[in-house]
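Hi Y.,

Following your request, here is the sequence exactly as I used it, all 336 residues.
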Amino acid sequence: MATRAPTLGDWIEPHPHGIYVRPADAWIDPSTAQPRALVTHGHADHARGGHGAVWATPETLAIMDVRYGQQSANPVQYGETIRMGDVEVGYVPAGHVLGSAQIVLDYRGERVVVSGDYKRRSDPTCTPFEPVKCDVFVTEATFGLPVFRHPDTGDEIDKLIAALHANPTRCVLVGAYALGKAQRVIAELRERGHEAPIYLHGALQRLCDLYVEQGVRLGELRTVADASKAEMAGHVVMCPPGALNDRWSRRLPDPITAMASGWMRVRQRARQKNVELPLILSDHADWDELTTTLLEISPKEVWVTHGREDALVHWCMTRQIRARALALAGFEDEDD
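Below is the corresponding structure, written out as C-alpha cells. Let me know if you'd prefer a different format.
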C-alpha cells in the first residue's frame, strides 16, 4: 500500500483561538491564555494578558506591559533565532506597528512564516516589512478585495494640513486607533513639516509616551484636558475613534471631524461615523500589496486569515498556488 505524502505544514494546527506549533508546544497569537505564546504584535486581536510566558520583540513586550501589566517576558530581537523543541523560531519585521513581527518557523527542512498583520508602505514609526521566502505563508486579508487600493500617504496627510490651514478658528479632530495609527498620523505630520503642538485625548497619552521612549519622534504633544478652546483653534486634536462624536468633543473649537483608516475608502462607513474628512490611511496591506507580496515570496502554499479570505484564495488558485482560508478569531476592523 502506498504511503501518503506528508502535507505541507502538517505540524502547524490552526484553531479558532490561535495557531498551535506542535513540535514547539507553543501558540502563535492565541486569544485565550496559554502556557507558551509567540506574539506577533501588540494589537488586542493578537496579544492578550495572562499567558504563562510570552516571546515577542522588546517593543511588543513593552506595549503588552502597558496594556496588560507585566508579562513573563522573553524578548526576541529582529533577526534573532531561538530554539523551541525541534523548531527554530525567528522574528523579522512586519511593518505594521512598532515592534510588529513575522514569526519564521523552521522544522525538518520546511519553513512556515506567520506574518501576523503587515503593510508595505513606508512608516516613520516602525521597521519596514521584510519578505522571507518560505514553503507556507500565513497572510492576513483585512483589505483582501481589489476595490481596496490605498492612496499615497503624503496626499492624505496634505488633505489634513490643508483643512487645518483653511479653518484657523476650528480644530481638526482625527479619530485614530490608540496603538500604531495615532502615532503614525502624528509622525507623518512631522515628516510633512507640521511642527505645531498636537493635542491628545487622554486615552492616547500612555502609548504615545511609550513610542517616544522607544525613539519615535512625535514632537510637542499636549493633552486636551490641560488646554482651552482658544488654544486648540487651528490645531490637530487626536482621539480614539469612539470619542469622535462623544460628549467629550464638545470642549473643542468647532471641530472638523476626520478619521484615519483604510475603511474610509468605503463612503458608507464615513457617513455612518459622521466623518467630514475621511483620511484613507491604513496599517494593513491593500490588495495590490497583498498580491505583490505573495508573488515576491513565492510560497508553495498560502493560508489566508483575518478578513476577505475568499478573494485572495481565488487569486492564488488562478495562479496555481495552493491556498486555503483559516477560521481564526479576530477583528477585521482596524479600530478594534
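The chain has two domains: 12-147+284-325, 153-279.

Thanks again,
Q.
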